[in-house]
Known about the structure:
Elements: E1 8-10, H1 12-23, E2 31-41, E3 44-53, E4 62-66, E5 69-73, H2 78-81, E6 84-88, E7 97-100
Parallel strand pairs: 1-6, 2-5
Antiparallel strand pairs: 2-3, 4-5, 6-7
Amino acid sequence: MASMDSVITVEPKALDKLLSIRSAEPDAEDLGIVLSITGVNGAAFTYEMALMLVANAAPDDHVETHGTLPVIIPKADMEHLRGSVMAMSRDLLRPGLQLNNPNSPSPDILGSNATLDLSG
């Protein structure tokens, strides 16, 4: 498993919520939260969070511990998630966990298969 430097910050209220969710599982002490990027929506990444056995993390996944909660970040997503903050939403119309990520995807201006003619 990867180094223990912190990629994300988990605020205390968000940590309490995540620990509460995990505690409902029969094997809670063996589980961590996997945080991964699943795609792009406009100018922002889309994410998925799931519970996973920490023992099943890939050898090159980054695993960091917040309180007693392991957070598993796939190697491919580390730099895109660096500096993110997991918090509880303060928006009463959109309650729940939110991820504030200072990073954004590179714009795909012409599509990934487009070629430019820069001659002339």
